[in-house]
Amino acid sequence: MEFVNNAVSGLLLGGLYAVAALGLSLVFGTMKLVNLAHGQLLILGAYLTAMLIGLFGGGDPLLVGVAAAVLLAVVVYPLQRYIITPVMAQGEEPPMTVTFGISVVITTLLIIVFTSSPLPTWAVEYATTQWDLFGIRIRLIYLIATVIALVFILALMWLLKRTAFGRQVRAASIDAEAAGLVGIDVKKTYARVMSMSAFVAAIAGVLIALSFSVAPTTGTGWLLRAFTVVVIGGLGSLPGTLFGGFIVGLVEAAGAAWVGPQYRDVIVFGVLVVILLVRPNGLFTKVAKA
Amino acid sequence: MKKKMLVAAAVVAAAGLVLSGCSASGGAGDDIVIGASVPLTGPLGTMGTPVSMGYQAAVDEINAAGGVDFGGAKHKIKLVIQDNASDPAKASSQAKSLVLDSKAVALLGPVTPPLSIPEATVADQLKVPFLTSITPIRAFGGANPNWNYAWDVFFDELQMTQTQFQASDLINTNKKVVLFTDTEEDGVVMGKLWEANAPKLGYTIVGRETFAVDNANFSSQVAAAKKSGADIVIAQVIPPEAIGILKEMKAQGYDPKAIFMEKGGNTGNFVKITGGLGLGVMAANWFAEGMGLAREKEFIDKYAAKIGGINSDLGILVCGYSIANVLADAIKVAGGTDPAKLSAAIGKTNGDYAIGHIQFTEGHAAPLKVIQTQWDSNNNQVMVLNLEGKAATPIVTPEAGLK
Amino acid sequence: MTKGRLMTTSTAPILVAEAVTRTFGGVTAVNKVDLVVNEGELVGIMGPNGAGKSTFFSLVAGARKPSSGKLYVCGKDFSKISLGDAARYGVGLAHQIPKPFRKLTVRQNVDIASYVLPRKRRKAAVDYALDISGLTDRQDKMAGDLGLLELKRLEIARVLALEPKLVLLDEVAAGLNEADLDELVALVRKVHATGKTVILVEHVQEVIHKLAERVVVLEWGSKLTEGTPAEVSKDPRVVEIYLGSPQNEDALKRQPTKAGETRLKVDGLSAGYGPVKVLNDVTFDVAQGEILTVLGANGAGKTTLAKALEGMVKTRSGSVVFKGEVVTDMPTFARQRSGLALVPEGRRLFGDLTVRENLRLGLKSERGFKASHKDQSPLDTVYELFPKLTELNDRQAGQLSGGEQQMVAVGRALAGEPDVIIFDELSLGLAPIVVDRLLEAVVKIANSGISVVLIEQNIHKAIAVADKILVLKRGEVVFSGKPKDFSEEELQRAYLGAE
Which residues contact C150 (CB under 8 A, 6 or more apart)? Predict the structure, then answer.
């Protein structure tokens, strides 16, 4: 029974991991940009939500989180448009360095404004509600996260597959120069994608804060976990991100049950290394045609 | 040729005279530079801030009174505080630079072993007196049993790991204990001490849940703890872990009679940070209302509001204040800032300070006795176990925040 | 099969194919092909894109194995040998796009190829290969510094260094101008004269006609016919599928255009990459409905001109005025939006997207987040021009043949309702019939009032459709004027460098 419990909790937690990784996956898949500030964007989403709750004098964190997500999307747009995109022409490292710089700035600002102690947790019922279904523990917040992950992934897939904007994003990701030839403003498109990524990240940050806790420095750990999910799921593949989240959640649960909870991270990153060795492009990418 | 060499020798000699003259004439009312590399930002920033406030408060008081009196003159103290951002590498390089560039004659320490020990090592190498606190003395002594210039004022882990059982004696429990420890060094050390102390004090450890630091998911550990039926939870964790564990306990409906969260439970505003879940969590402390310290009320009135309540942050401030005074007194006793004499004078300290009696014993450490405190709804840590190991304010049980 | 010819050439067959078939998944790329090539022959293989030429060649070169049928090359059963071992049995393959080690000298490159030989024979083989391919005097030059023709020579030298019995030439004439072409033909003749058997796959008809003693025509993976070049070109089926019907020539005739407003005016344009100045002081203009054909040898700056006009290469000096507005500093996407379109060299389609998606991306109604399904009318024009695209709508663009891809590329540009279209190397690597169809489309486009800048390798056809001609040589304009003033002399001056 404990085994089933572990598996279910791992799987649902995987949903949370998937949302946390989704923005990273989107940005990598479309711009080939490894956004090292992604972890900090997650955390910043939670802090903005806390700020807005303070400003509004209350409110449900997830609902206020939507407003915070919009705010974060707006803030991130010019960052991508005027700071990251201009250095993207110079190769892969300069934009990575810039995003790393942004992550440091975010952390520092958060410490200055909020101190380095953890963000006060929101006392909402669903954050600590657990259902007992025939002896299987289901934490409501993980379930909510999994549902949100599914909704976001389906919405993003629809957006990319079925809309003009999606076509532009895909075209720009295949050949940015040729995208200009069909009238796509690639710089604007990139900024919009980064905004979307930040929106999803902010919501994910609220979910993380509701499930666990966040402090200005917790972003790095989540970046690493999100990166693992993205690599396992296949770099830049959206449905793969969901599966990647599930796999990381399950591997964590299995590792905790069989080897010991203190080795959870060792096992997860061990699996990551093995996958990188065997399938460098991730589990869910098609093998390149010969 | 010969002439040239003579000139060179003269220059060298003159330079030597000037240099030695400098150090010898340090007493003529000159300022004394004391350096401190503390974590004002980063994960330890919440502890580094009050300790530096304590340093500053002590130095301001001393300077207001004219300075440190020795050699027939009063010398003002110039305190140079630098932020090491909780980074051990930065802490040691700053300690070095404070001595070599800022010409600090002594150093006040940061907080916690990961930062204190690197700085202490630098001080020993440079032969500069170093005085630190918020660094458990066995961890300090374990890193180097033969410190020369470094000194530490804080609690003894052995005594600290008894207080949880002593406090539990004050309430009615099944005497079963579950430990939550992370895989950091202090988690490992404390876990072993609790395991050793429990049987001697009549308690049974029924489970020891371990996890890597920064781990977010505690579902299996809490499930196991709940299953073991323990009435007492003792944890050695950092704040995010404390929050994660409490959330999972709430979710799984596990509300033991007593929860001790050392280190993580000593964060200011703990009840607020945990969204109320932390109400009733206990933690060891070295400063609280009713301890019977001489200047207790003075510090509470002056700083509690600024710090956010009567809590261990206030205790850290008082610790910082106290060791800064220990250093100033030692300079007076040593009659100057000669490193060897000053270090020896620190070692001879034997007196009452704001944090209590300070006297160094073996291993260059002065142990402070700890008490147990419990978080109340006013965001204060209330003493429930006093310095004699006896009941103070009654313990509220079971833990209120998880109801 | 022409029996007489078989008798005149030497005796033993070097290649025997019996019902050779190769499938990829469900697709049959080569379908029951029978072929016998005797030692010392020079055989050409032709066929439209997708006819299976390259696949058949890869089987003969031992890079793939037949799915069924018998294939004997140089006496070995090629359905049984290890992949890549063909060189040991005497088969040498020269690739369409030579990729030598650029940092090594010509000789070192050839040397590496000779490693299949026993140590003692290597030096002699390399000397011989360099001699035959005419590179002896350039053997110490870095391969990276070679021009296209020299690269092709090097590629052939690398093949000769293997001491092959059978030499396979895969579209070695691709990309060469006509003067270079003659030299290449001479080189192949020389190789053949040394006693090697040569099989060549070629798009450039001229090369096949000049070289091949016997031609095999493939279509849809099967052998359509076989014979002398003369016989084959008289075969109506070949004319139909490959050479194009004669009446197509008429379609390329232009009505003389009435002088419309000036759409594009380029004045003193200079551009380049890093320290290299590729375009220098180029000036021209194009009026409504006009076709300006831009000619020039490889490296003359034609593609750089196209890119500079579209904002993909930064302009150093000079100006580009489009519809009265200076667009010199405008980004590419804004130029497209204002009606200045480019069909780039190599097409640059979005391979993972469907044909429909590729076409729709160009539409004006595609801007912004919403997909507007209303204004599809520019696409109607595209489908009218290339009816075939209606069938291909849901295919991934990357899976189409080169000709089909080029249609999509042209369609994608038209979807933006442009006033000027620049075509960069429209016919590069395409079969003649496809080229004709595309040029017909260009003429129709111009007749509809759109101005055209046509950058072409296919000199005579490009001149035939031109209203104006601009010839570039090393980045500078050497001729600018009407086709009637453009003499063969001018052409030679541009391409051969005669002053």
Answer: C135, C138
Report the share of chain C in percent with pLDDT over 90. Answer: 26
In a domain, A231, yes or no: no
Query: Would you place residue B86 in the very low, low, confident or very high pLDDT band (cuts 50, 70, 90)?
Result: confident
Can you give the pTM of this predicted structure? 0.73
**Number of independent structural domains in chain A:** 1
- In percent, how much of chain B has pLDDT > 90? 72
CB contact set of B371 (below 8 Å; sequence gap of 6+): B163, B284, B285, B286, B288, B291, B383, B385, B386, B387, B392
Tell me, yes or no, whether chains B and C touch by having 3 or more C-beta pairs under 8 A.
no
Q: How close, in Å, is residue B387 to chain A by CA atoms?
A: 29
Give the H or E element holding residue C486.
none
Question: What is C249-496's CATH number?
Answer: 3.40.50.300
Sequence letter at residue B385 = L
Domain that residue A90 falls in: 2-217
Question: Which chains would you list as touching A if contact means 3+ CB atom pairs under 8 Å?
Answer: B, C
With the CA atoms of C350, C353, C359 and C361 taken in that order, what torsion angle do they form, in degrees rounded to the nearest 10? -80
Q: Are residues B273 and B325 in the same domain?
A: no
Q: Which residue of C has its CA nearest to A175?
A: C350
Query: Could you state, in order of their start, the residue ranges of all structural domains in chain C?
Result: 3-243, 249-496
Q: Which residues pair with A12 in a beta bridge?
A: none
| Beta carbons within 10 angstroms of residue A221's beta carbon | 17
Suggest the residue from C273, C332, C374, C399 to mutate for an interface test with chain A (most A CBs closer than 10 A). C332
Residue of chain C with shortest Cα separation from A173: C350
- What total of structural domains would you count in chain B? 2
Q: Which residues of C touch A186 (CB under 8 A)?
A: 333
| B78 sits in which H/E element | strand B77-83
Domain that holds residue B330: 31-156+294-368
Q: How many other CB atoms sit within 10 Å of the CB of residue A156?
A: 23
Distance CA C396, CA A49 (A): 43
> Are B75 and B106 contacting, i.e. CB atoms less than 8 angstroms apart?
no
Q: B359 pLDDT band (50/70/90 cuts)?
A: very high
Q: What ipTM was reported for this prediction?
A: 0.84
pLDDT the model gives residue C237: 72
Q: What pLDDT sits at residue C49?
A: 63
Strand C262-273 relative to strand C451-455: parallel, antiparallel, unpaired? unpaired
Which band of pLDDT confidence, cut at 50, 70 and 90, is reported for residue A284?
low
For residue A253, being part of any structural domain is answered with: no
- For residues B131 and B54, membership in a common domain is answered with yes
Q: From the CA of C338, how many Å to the nearest CA of chain A?
A: 9
Give the C-alpha separation, A219 to A208, whole Å: 11
Nearest-angstrom CA–CA distance, B120 and B154: 15
Here the CATH number for the domain that contains residue B171 is: 3.40.50.2300
Let me know if residue A244 belongs to a domain: no
Compute mean pLDDT per 10 residues along chain C, 499 residues long, and list them.
42 86 78 90 81 84 87 85 79 82 88 84 89 89 84 90 89 74 88 90 76 86 85 72 48 62 92 80 92 84 92 91 93 92 92 91 72 65 89 87 90 92 87 84 90 86 88 87 79 56
* Fold classified for C3-243: Rossmann fold (3.40.50)
pLDDT band for B159, please (50, 70, 90 cuts): very high
- CA dist C404 to A181, C395, C454, Å? 19, 11, 19
Q: Which of A116, A137, A253 sits opposite B41 (nearest CB)?
A: A116
The reported pLDDT for the residue numbered A137 is 82
Residues above pLDDT 70, as percent of chain B:
92
- The answer to whether residues B59 and B145 belong to one domain is yes
Helix or strand (DSSP H, E) at B31 = none
Q: Can you tell me the distance from the alpha carbon of B283 to that of B163, in angstroms, rounded to the nearest whole number?
A: 9
